[in-house]
Design brief:
Blueprint (H helix, E strand, L loop, with lengths): L5 E2 L33 E3 L9 E2 L1 E4 L2 E4 L5 E3 L5 E8 L2 E8 L7 E2 L6 E6 L5 E8 L2 E8 L6 E3 L5 E7 L5 E8 L2 E8 L5 E6 L1 E5 L5 E7 L5 E7 L5 E5 L6 E6 L5 E12 L2 E12 L6 E2 L8 E5 L5 E6 L9 E6 L3
Parallel strand pairs: 1-3
Antiparallel strand pairs: 2-28, 4-5, 6-7, 7-8, 8-9, 10-11, 11-12, 12-13, 14-15, 15-16, 16-17, 18-19, 19-20, 20-21, 22-23, 23-24, 24-25, 26-27, 27-28
């Protein structure tokens, strides 16, 4: 994998030593596999966009991956924002979905890790690695590079706005684990809610979806109502780890990344694929089955498509942004 397309940070599960997988073992060149029949895949980016590929680490049956959001769609649905590694820096770039032209650089930082648009589309909140800390910033989505710093001196990442934009939720890693926090944008008040990471607010509720590890070490999807204190496990499976939950625009579907296993004769290969379920965890369905790693999924604004990062369709295993139809 080209070093320019890698992205390093917090991994789902354990940070494991990366095993050697040769191109002869995994065929990245095909766009789709028979299990994905009925789904259309379209490549959105080009190699010259230098899309960051979230790093995946494998060791035996264990697999861990960078689970933070590195794609998002503009409010009007015409643009996609992504992380790109250029000139030894990682920054947010924005690309017109209807064009095959070049992208516009949105941030002028050193090591942006992840980001998301505000619900009104006017702001972008992102985290940046600085030495031994990750700090969260806010910037305008359509103006210059001026940033407002939100957190400082901690290991913070996965920032995302609440539906009313009053709060920015994020994950903070400390010695005793990872937990979900919020920053009040008016009074700068910080609140700590619960154990977990990858927060995603539930529209119309004082609640968020997040990832938690169970006693066996498997990542599950939970719903946390921070007004009532009710905590509910939505998706759990003894053979899968899950991360990166995001809710469909109509509020009916939950999209997420999960670990999977491919068996072909004597070869067993562990990778990451895309899954969905209803918001209550029913109708659990695996969407992708490619040997490439499918990561960082986001919905189109009309809910008809899913955008994600993958090495599929490239024999050299270089990352691009892909779009797939959602046929449910």
């Amino acid at each position: 994998m080209d070093h320019r397309t890698r992205l390093y940070s917090i991994f789902a599960g354990m940070a494991l030593a990366c095993c050697s997988i040769s191109a002869q073992t995994v065929d990245y060149s095909v766009v789709s596999v028979p299990e994905e029949s009925g789904t259309d895949f379209t490549q959105i980016s080009q190699i010259t966009d230098y899309v960051c590929m979230p790093e995946v680490k494998r060791s035996g049956r264990n697999i861990g991956w960078f689970s933070n959001r590195i794609l998002d769609i503009s409010k009007d649905g015409t643009q996609i924002a992504y992380l790109s590694f250029r000139n030894n820096t990682t920054n947010i770039f924005i690309k017109e979905l209807s064009k095959q032209g070049s992208s516009i650089q949105k941030t002028n930082r050193t090591a942006v890790l992840d980001f998301s648009y505000s619900p009104d589309g006017k702001q972008i909140v992102f985290s940046e690695a600085r030495g031994k800390t990750n700090q969260i910033f806010q910037t305008s989505s359509d103006k210059g590079f001026v940033c407002r710093q939100i957190t400082n001196g901690n290991t913070d990442y996965s920032p995302i706005y609440s539906s009313d934009m009053g709060l920015v939720f994020f994950a903070r890693q400390e010695n005793n684990g990872i937990s979900i926090w919020s920053h009040d944008m008016k009074n700068n008040f910080l609140a700590n809610y619960s154990q977990g990471f990858n927060p995603y607010p539930v529209r119309g509720e004082q609640a968020f979806i997040c990832i938690r590890a169970n006693a066996a070490g498997n990542n599950e999807i939970w719903k946390i109502n921070y007004a009532t204190g009710v905590e509910e496990c939505i998706v759990s499976h003894p053979e899968h780890n899950f991360t990166s939950p995001t809710i469909s625009p109509d509020g009916k579907w939950l999209l997420f990344v999960g670990s999977s296993k491919i068996e072909n004769g004597k070869i067993t290969y562990y990778n990451t694929d895309l899954f969905v379920s209803r918001l209550d965890g029913t109708e659990f369905t695996q969407l992708t089955y490619h040997a490439a790693d499918d990561l960082s999924p986001v919905w189109s604004k009309d809910g008809r498509y899913i955008y994600f990062v993958s090495q599929r369709g490239n024999k050299e295993a270089k990352a691009n942004i892909w779009r797939m139809t959602f046929n449910y």
